[in-house]
Amino acid sequence: MDAIVIYITVSDENEAVNISKTLVDERLAGCINIVKGIRSIYKWEGKIEDEPEVLLILKSRHHLFKRLKNRVKELHSYSVPEIIALPVIGGSDDYLRWLEDVTLAD
């Protein structure tokens, strides 16, 4: 199975929409959920940060991950964006076929 789910955090909803529309338009992702109102606590440059962020949950395919990751780095405002891919081990056959249809082929 080629399907993956990718988590990306961004600074605000405008950035989330911009990245999402670009990746879907370029067929690097089939669907992206924008989850507002998350709070991220992390260490950056020696300090503990506590910031509001927006989470993107992308559905894509493993063979597209490198291109997708590079494109996100071009579009993202962070110098070190969170881009984490997880394998899909099962799912609706109809949904997974749809994902194949709306993303770029091998």
Structure notes:
The chain is an alpha+beta fold. It has one domain (3-90): 2-Layer Sandwich (Alpha-Beta Plaits), CATH 3.30.70. The protein is built from 3 helices and 4 strands. It has helices spanning 13-25, 65-75, 93-102; strands spanning 3-10, 31-44, 47-61, 83-87. A 4-stranded antiparallel β-sheet has the order 2-3-1-4, with helices on one face. The longest helix has 13 residues, at 13-25.
Supply the number of helical segments: 3
Major β-sheet profile: 4 strands, antiparallel
CATH architecture tag: 2-Layer Sandwich
Distance between the termini: 13 Å
Q: What share of residues is helical?
A: 25-40%
**Roughly how many Å is the radius of gyration?**
14 Å
CATH overall fold name: Alpha-Beta Plaits
- The H/E string reads EHEEHEH
- How many beta-strand runs? 4
Number of domains: 1
Low-confidence stretches: none
